[in-house]
């Protein structure tokens, strides 16, 4: 396995862990859907997976992860404007 493939796979796994961790912390009520941490974990997860799926030329996955990243940014903006942003 090449060094680049190793790093691209690592980013993909890191993105998957970000998604799973953020959802787990949401459903266990440790994070709120309006928290900056929740949106950031989703944004990072999506961006890591975008890089991974671009490398793998999996364009449907690139598309869905770009949409996910855009929704995370939108959530940050909406929560900040409405004053709903919480620390946890």
UniProtKB/TrEMBL annotation:
InterPro entries membership: CBU_0592-like
Record keywords, A-Z: Membrane, Transmembrane, Transmembrane helix
Domain CBU-0592-like: residue ranges: 9-77
Transmembrane segments: 6-26, 38-55, 61-78
Cleavable signal peptide: none
NCBIfam families: CBU_0592_membra
Name the record gives this protein: CBU-0592-like domain-containing protein
């Amino acid at each position: 396995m090449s060094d680049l493939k190793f790093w691209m796979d690592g980013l993909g796994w890191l993105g998957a862990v970000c998604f799973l961790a953020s959802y787990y912390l949401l459903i266990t009520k440790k994070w709120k859907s309006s928290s900056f941490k929740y949106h950031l974990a989703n944004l990072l997860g999506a961006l890591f997976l975008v890089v991974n799926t671009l490398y793998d030329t999996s364009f449907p996955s690139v598309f869905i992860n770009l949409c996910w990243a855009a929704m995370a940014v939108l959530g940050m903006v909406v929560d900040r404007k409405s004053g709903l942003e919480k620390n946890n």
